[in-house]
Amino acid sequence: MVAAGGEVVSLRAVPTLVGAGYAGVEWEVVPARGQGLDVLVADLRRSAAARPPAPGVDLLVVPAALGALPRLVVLDVDSTLVTGEVVEMLAAHAGAEAEVAAVTAAAMRGEVDFAGSLHRRVALLRGLPVGVLDDVLAEVVPSPGADAMTRALAAAGVPVGVVSGGFAEVVEPLATSLGIPHAHANRLEVDGGRLTGRVLGDVVDAEAKEHFLRRLATEHDVPLAGTVAVGDGANDLAMVRAAGTGVAFCAKPVLAQAADVVLRRRDLTAVAHLVGAR
């Protein structure tokens, strides 16, 4: 079943939409940009009347145009590709998890400047031994379906990248372990085997994430209309808006309101289905 405008509508597929089958899962449907929800609901009703779905099959509905284009998927990392926030995991080792978590939450809601908030949080990590990065990497838990998603996308020849306001020291080996060839994140400054509480170079913020999406699209000769950007917070807004299909994944309201597709279940296999890779 598919929830649309407060109603539950059954369908398999309609000419202007693409459906991907799921068993026992409900997905929220949002209209493609420029399409009114009343039109979407009417299309779903017509489809349900013409061709009822198999029992127990639920559908994720996305703009159909994506299937005809070269594709590229770019994902955020913290609370998207993985279940937690790496900076908070590091802060736990410094005894500052609660303070860092409060700042992270405000940044993801779009209430404070991301770059400034990152500098504030990283400053609290000062003095941690660099080896704690390996400890945190071992603690990171990929979101359900992450491995299946990356394998399906690779098999379908869909390029994948991850971009994060977190830290390359964790993001890069994580990406490698999942077979993701492109990764971009902040790098922490280290002196004498300990974190200095500073990042090297410019912060990977919302604009940097959008630039990464556009750069990968150019490198792989994929039109922006064929790109899919997946994130959860305010610092993902720019790339989600720039992408042909922006996906809010278990996201804060500020991002969900701007996205084309809203996924409320933590299951990344939906992303592979979205681009037709299974």
UniProtKB/TrEMBL annotation:
EC number(s) stated in the UniProt entry for this protein: 3.1.3.3
Keyword Zinc-finger: no
Keywords: Amino-acid biosynthesis, Hydrolase, Magnesium, Metal-binding, Serine biosynthesis
Reaction catalysed by this enzyme: O-phospho-D-serine + H2O = D-serine + phosphate; O-phospho-L-serine + H2O = L-serine + phosphate
Pathway(s) of this molecule: Amino-acid biosynthesis; L-serine biosynthesis; L-serine from 3-phospho-D-glycerate: step 3/3
InterPro entries xrefs: HAD-like_SerB, HAD-like_sf, HAD_sf, PSP
Superkingdom of source: Bacteria
Gene3D superfamilies on file: HAD superfamily/HAD-like
Cofactor(s) needed for function: Mg(2+)
A molecular function (GO) term: hydrolase activity
Keyword Hydrolase listed: yes
Assigned protein family: Belongs to the HAD-like hydrolase superfamily. SerB family.
Protein name: phosphoserine phosphatase
